[in-house]
Amino acid sequence: MKETRAPSYEDTWSLVQRVKVGDREAFVTLTRAYQQKVFILTYSFFRNKEDALDLVQETFLRLFQKIHTFRRGRNFEAWLLQIAKNLCIDAYRRDRGKRRELGSGKTVEELDVADPRGQGSEESRDLRSVLSRGVDRLSERQRTIFIMRHYNQLKNEEVAESLGISLGTVKSLHFKAIRNLRAFLGPYLGDEK
Questions:
Q1: What does pTM read for this prediction?
Q2: What integer pLDDT is reported at residue 32 of this predicted model?
Q3: Which of 23, 77, 87, 104 pairs with 7 at a CA distance of 20 to 30 A?
Q4: Vertex 67, ends 159 and 140: CA angle to 5°?
């Protein structure tokens, strides 16, 4: 994954203040800083690029509408990802009957958000493909937490705040996700058990 550096807390607060008074350039800067993380979260729900991109747009529209409610001292990234998660849940419930099958989409690694430097050896591409299949086999909650922790590089506390669940639940689901991935990847990594 190409790492996009989020602005520091003070820089983010400054951008939020500017957006609150109608500064479009500040809004564009916030959008660029966080759009990849929002995309990864939305994609983890639907496994479909077009649906995920629609939800990214909807998330930033909602951000623009709700920016006045953001208060100093809160974690902006967790607040934004909570907006995205709520929109995903709403869309999932709304479109439950007409959704495409989850397995029909591409994996995160196959999308344009992948790190162009990752186009190295055939072996590394194979390993990424195997890992992606393993992540796809996780339960929805485990997959979401794994993606937020390892692709979005959020801390357990940020995941808990973003998803509105306890820190213990995040730790437990993350542990189970890692355990399940190890079991799935074992044969590919030479573990004969």
A1: 0.59
A2: 92
A3: 87
A4: 30
